[in-house]
Amino acid sequence: MSELRFNPILREWVITATHRQERPLLVSEEDSKKSCPFCVPAEEVPEPYSMVCLPNRFPSLHLQPPQPGIKGDDFYKVLPAQGAAEVVLYSSDHKTTLSQQSVRKITSLISLWQERYRVLGRKKFVRYVFIFENKGEVIGVTMPHPHGQIYAFPFIPPVIERELSSSESYLKEEGRCIHCEVIKKEKEEGRRIISENKDFLAFIPFYARWPYEVHIYPQRHILSLSEFEEEEKGSLAEILKVVLSRYDHLFNFSFPYVMVIHQSPTDEKDYSYYHFHLEFYPPHRSAQKIKYLAGSESGAGTFINDTSAEEKAKELRSAI
Question: What are the chain's domains?
Fold first, then answer.
């Protein structure tokens, strides 16, 4: 059963998808490749493959959604969970990671992201295409095979709505892009920059919520993947490779993280005030310690970062 339920207090949609309880759980290391559905040859999974995008077998959103299992009203609104959920397999090699891929391979991934953003965004019921990766058991990943995901939402997610609202307000009040201002400030100070090339800037933001949170921004004002030129895709692949490699070398293990792409919605409205970027949320605050979202973060929405963005950026710059 899948459906959308509206929270009238926070004014945001929640996806209820009870069938996802049946999805496979993380398996033991010795049996992982043997039982991994992305390794076992199947009609929808060619073998071997370099990279492939597939419909999620346990989708929270459906191109042809079932009818909701409960009837809503004007207060408790309920809608069918229409959208799309896809899985992007980075490689047929079960034990590799995105950080171990070549710059050329990561460039191909960015091209795939671009193509899926355009295709899914053209569907009338899709308002936002969300591209992300959950990596690592500590994140809650149930399938260790290297992969990312794409959700096509029939609404604009609340975090994106907040960013859009602040971006639009800043443009009206100050006459310039708030994200371009962030880039300018980070380049002026320089202490939080992790890596830079002619097209992109990677840094731990001044307002970082996670100890090793990294944002990657195009230096050109770009709204979405759809606007990327071929050379810019290669530049983004290069800086992604640097950031991911430094993560892995920081404590000498494969670094877990959540990677998300924030870009303009696909509902054909004017979002010229927005600015494409990637954000990484790694849970580690040291090699042995994890930052958990507890009372202040989960209950109040206020993050407490017990580290300094400047110090953590220096650590990441040294992780070569």
Answer: 1-21+59-80 (no CATH), 24-57+83-318 (3.30.428.10)
